[in-house]
Structures are given as C-alpha cells and as structure tokens.
Design a protein that fits this description.
By secondary structure, the chain is mainly alpha-helical. Helices cover about 65% and strands about 5% of the residues. The chain has one domain (about 1-100). The chain has helices at about 1-15, 35-55, 65-70, 75-100, and strands at about 20, 25. Strand 1 and strand 2 (about 25) form a beta hairpin. Helix 2 packs antiparallel against helix 4 (about 75-100). The chain is elongated.
Amino acid sequence: MDEDINEVLKTAEHMAFLEQRGHLILNPISALPEPRRHIKKALQERIRTLTGAYIALATFVEDEEVFAAMDDPKGSVETYRRVVKNMEAYEVEIKAFLRGLGP
C-alpha cells in the first residue's frame, strides 16, 4: 500500500490542479496505479497510524522524569497525570485537525 501512495503522490506532482484562475483540471482515473478505493483505504490507514503516533508523543518526557519514575514510581504520580492529560489534549487536537480536513 505504501508504494501505491507514493506512486499517487509522484503522479500528482506532475499534474496541474488549476489551469487558469478558477478553472479546475480533472485528472484521469486511469493515471492512478490502483483503484481509488484501495488508495483511499491506504491513506486512511496511514492517517490512523499517524494519529496514534501523534498522541503517543505525549508519553515522551524529560530524561530526568523517566529516571525518577523508574526509581520511585509512586513518587512520580504527577508526571503520569501530566502525561495522561497531554495525551487527552493531543487526541482532542488531532481530532479537531482531522475534522477540518473534510467530510
């Protein structure tokens, strides 16, 4: 699937989307390397993976906090709470971003 996505992006680089101001150029479906539904599904899967990765960024904290949590897990409750709060905020942020992309 990754190859299909890369092929579509490579093909799209050479196609113009606006010929003149306000005149849309349509691209032939035969230019796609795979059926559109397969490419759409591959893109949705990639977006889902990237969404998970974006939310997981919240689990990365300063090195000192990681070492402190390893030494005394009970004493690092605030760090864990902040990470969970950040994960929730990242999730809200990414959902708002995805809603803004389209239908």
